[in-house]
Amino acid sequence: MIFQPSSTRAKIFSILTCLITVPNDSSINIYTDSQNFISTYNNLNNSCFSHRKLLKINNHHTWQAIFYLVKEKSLDISLHKVKAHDDDVLNNSADLLAKEGCALDPIFLNPRTSPNALMVLTFNLNGPLEKDLRKWSKNALECCNMLSTVNNTSNAYLFNKAKTHLIDWHNTSLWIKRNNDNTICSDLNDKITGFKIKSFNHTLPTSDLQQRNYPNLYPPGPINCTACNNLVINNEHIGFCPTHLTTLNNSLQKIKKTFILKLTEISDASGAMDIKAWVERSHIFSPVTNDDYPVYLILHQCVSSVLTSLVKMFIKNTKERLSTIIFFMKLFFKDITRPFWKLHYSLMHAWKKARNITRKKKIKYRRKNKTGNSINTADNPASQLRIP
Ligand SMILES: [Zn+2]
């Protein structure tokens, strides 16, 4: 009970303790206000219920102990549902006893002694895990991934921006993981997802990273953007080069019009709302003068909380809301992220050609340095991204 506490667990435990105390061959009537307990008991009592399914049920060790006692003690159990908080004298006195029992030492169940125990997993020496392990592990792994993302130095610039422009992490994760071409498995899907991850992590192969990884091919010192010839070209600069801001703002206005039409078409909000006026006022579509705008996050594959709030105002249906957010992200990716990367790629290609930095030379360099330190993400041929 100390680890993974829940009200259902408390109820199951109270019934388990009753079954421990009753004599063998008893007929027992259990009056409970928990419909969940009654339904789960009836499900598990079905002989078709497999052991594999049982392991997906919360508190499965406790349930196994209950069924073990029922079988070993030849108990005949009848369950009755009573209304909660309805002045039922016996129910009230059971509640009172439960409250008094809070001061007692906790009860520990050792699932290792169960004859059905295949294995008993614990976490952090805190007690057995009594949940669907696949779901539990998924949550734990997502926390680990998030922690490593937060501590990744390449993400420092993005996280600094996220202090003022909040990120909707749930939808960001869905957007990055989303299938891009509706196929089960494809090279195109992998390429786009790879691009999204690199864009988010700021590890797209810009000159600064190439220079770090091919020190003998690239000239030393800062490599300036060939468009503005003033600022260093890196992941942060893409799309926010002063010479490209007009293009960015024009594309943003174009997206805005399409987005207003989409919202108007599928809005299910009650009452008349001026969608156009709300979208026009949104910070997402404010004219951009530097990278201190929510657009920076969107260009790096993050769903801005401003976008989520805006969509939430007009769409109440959760599924529709998600599909509208994805619609916007796709539009942004197609009309802004992709063209800006293509532009950067062509400018850098010309720059490299002028300095005779060829793909062949990079391959040769990699072969020569194979035994040295592993080459970073921006080195491998797959990272020479050409977005299809
Ligand atoms: Zn520039």
UniProtKB/TrEMBL annotation:
User: Organism source for this protein?
Assistant: Rhizophagus clarus
What name goes with this protein?
Ribonuclease H-like domain-containing protein
Q: Give this protein's Gene Ontology molecular function annotations.
A: nucleic acid binding; RNA-DNA hybrid ribonuclease activity
Q: Which InterPro entries does this UniProt record tie to the protein?
A: RNaseH-like_sf, RNaseH_domain, RNaseH_sf
- Bias (Polar residues) occurs at 372-388
What are the start and end residues of every segment in region (Disordered)? 365-388
Q: Which residues form the RNase H type-1 domain?
A: 1-103
